[in-house]
Specification:
- By secondary structure, this protein is α+β, with helices and mostly antiparallel strands.
- The protein has 3 helices and 6 strands; from the N terminus they run H-H-E-E-H-E-E-E-E.
- The longest helix has 16 residues, at 51-66.
Length: 135
């Protein structure tokens, strides 16, 4: 299965990421990059990006990275740490698998702002189902 088809799968089928205007920048085997231009709808009451928006961005990059082998994978455990608030610009999530076997994929995601400062870190564990990604 080509990485182009995997990228197309996520761009067409992940409706929640699309609703939040998140772009899948790239997918490589075990890696993915996603970005989001901060808009008013992404801000919380403190006028910084809502934690749910950052989580969605990280989760989208995580999903693309862990499914990049063409095996259907789903999150079974994730956690996120919010490091710095940001209110404008573009935030970018870089996901990379750090361990993978036939059943599990562990992935680290780091979100940066435009100044290359860390906004949040995310760790996810995905279960790799015994079936191909439905592209």
């Amino acid at each position: 299965m080509s990485l182009k088809k995997i990228k197309e799968f996520f761009e067409k089928r992940d409706r929640f990421a699309a609703h939040n205007d998140i772009e899948l920048v790239s997918v490589e085997t075990g890696k993915a990059v996603a970005s989001m231009r901060i808009q008013d709808k992404h801000l919380n009451g403190a006028e910084v990006v809502h934690g749910g928006a950052l989580f969605t961005l990280a989760d989208y990059a995580f999903a693309a990275a862990t499914n990049s082998h063409g095996t259907f994978s789903l999150a079974i455990n994730v956690n996120i740490q919010f490091i710095k608030g940001v209110s404008s610009g573009v935030v970018t999530a870089y996901a990379q698998e750090i361990a993978v076997n036939s059943k599990l994929s562990s992935c680290r995601v780091t979100i940066y702002d435009e100044s290359n400062e860390i906004i949040a870190t995310f760790q996810g564990l995905a279960y790799r189902k015994n079936k191909p990604l439905p592209v």
